[in-house]
Write a structure and sequence with these properties.
Shape: globular
Oligomer: single chain
Strand order of the largest sheet: 2-1-3-4
Number of helices: 11
CATH topology of one domain: Rossmann fold
Largest sheet: 4 strands, parallel
Helix content: 25-40%
């Protein structure tokens, strides 16, 4: 893979349009907020997941709301959850992450409660924001459980913040800022470096030469039209937009540190759109089959696009991809997600402190040429091709 060397702009001039639903420091629309902000609390924003068989279809209705997908089609996805008793691991993982964040925040002497709310299942964001407001915590800093830039991984969270504040009549009382996308923060990247290093060592000890091994960095596929619109619209990130460029940049850093002698590629998983709609490729299963035909004997699958063992990791990687590898005679191992790794948790609290102290952009740690990413999303960032622009917090309109 070639180097990704797109530099983030370093100017910090205010935008002509203010940022809605934001703290006074973020409201002018500068890319980075370089002044201290006295946040009252942290809002941990998750995707959500069912916690029993009866929850599965209602949860999937929430995920696909507004798209008119009948229950019969939802049931095609529901069997992934039903295979695990109707329980997604994501809520329990967020409970563990919330506890880990609270512990690290307390260790650093920061007086910040952590409220947790989901987009698609209980506890909902509405409940978390109302709970915070009732406690007098009205200046919130959000940490979303997604590291990269795209509609579903960033802007949709920001739209939900705006929707919740409007629906609860708290828009004039509560403000929500958001930490920058953390795809290249050292705490996030280090967990994957250690995972790849361990996987390669395991495969080599089992008798596989580095030339026989491929590392597959896997992330959630998205429609190519959405990928093209990910990130700021005034920059050319290539055909896959900022979403693909960010993954490629992180993968290069990981491989340079963990296994520079091993070949690698970026693959995609969990496609859910109609066959007529182009999505990012190649699919992880197709790539495994192609590698087998090329004589590759072992693969290390790295869930680079995921912060914990979501259902997509348990089903699409641990189940389907492993079955594909076995069918074609390839040895496959899967590296860990960050989960509650101390380096990852510490990195998230670093991002919180960054905003509490107003750290200048030039002093913010980042592992790729793309960073540090913006505190305040830029105009037109990560448009939803199907629905257009809706009101969103933590970014310059639209």
């Amino acid at each position: 893979m070639g180097d990704v060397t797109i530099d983030a702009p370093r100017e910090n001039a205010p935008s002509a349009e203010p940022v809605p639903f934001a703290s006074p420091a973020a409201r002018p629309g500068r890319p980075w907020v370089e002044e201290p902000v006295a946040y009252d609390a942290v809002l941990l924003a998750g995707f959500g997941g069912p916690e029993g068989q009866d929850d599965v279809i209602p949860f999937l209705r929430n995920v696909t709301r507004g798209r008119g997908i009948p229950d019969e089609r939802l049931e095609e996805v529901a069997h992934h959850y039903r295979h695990f008793g109707g329980v997604s691991p994501i809520n329990e993982q967020n409970r563990a992450l919330k506890a880990a964040l609270e512990k690290e925040i307390a260790r650093r002497g920061l007086d910040l409660p952590v409220y947790w709310g989901n987009r698609n299942w209980a506890p909902y964001l509405e409940d978390a924001v109302q709970e915070a407001a009732a406690a007098g915590d009205t200046t919130l800093l959000a940490v979303a459980t997604s590291a990269y830039s795209s509609f579903s991984s960033c802007r949709q969270y920001r739209e939900d913040f705006a929707r919740v504040l409007t629906a609860t009549d708290l828009a004039g009382t509560v403000t929500i800022d958001k930490v920058r996308q953390f795809f290249d923060h050292p705490g996030f990247v280090e967990t994957f470096v250690e995972g790849v290093r361990g996987a390669i060592a395991q495969l080599v000890s089992d008798g596989y030469a580095p030339a026989d091994i491929r590392v597959l960095f896997s992330t959630h596929s998205i429609p190519t039209a959405d990928a093209e619109r990910s990130g700021p619209r005034d920059r050319d990130f290539g055909p896959g937009g900022a979403y693909e460029a960010q993954h490629l940049a992180v993968a290069e850093v990981v491989m340079a540190e963990a296994a520079p002698e091993v070949s690698w590629s970026l693959v995609y998983q969990s496609r859910s759109g109609p066959p007529s709609q182009p999505w990012l490729e190649p699919d992880v299963n197709d790539e495994i089959r192609s590698l087998a035909e090329a004589g590759v004997r072992a693969v290390a699958i790295v869930p680079l696009g995921f912060v914990s063992d979501h259902m997509e990791v348990l089903w699409d990687l641990d189940t389907e991809a492993m079955e594909t590898a076995e069918e074609v005679g390839i040895r496959a191992v899967r590296t860990p997600t960050p989960g509650v790794d101390p380096a990852y948790v510490s990195g998230l609290v670093d991002l919180i402190e960054e905003r509490l102290r107003g750290v200048p952009a030039a002093d913010r740690p980042h592992r790729t040429a793309l960073g540090p990413w913006f505190d305040v999303c830029r105009p037109g960032c990560c448009e939803n091709v199907r629905a257009g622009f809706k009101p969103a917090a933590s970014g310059v309109a639209p």
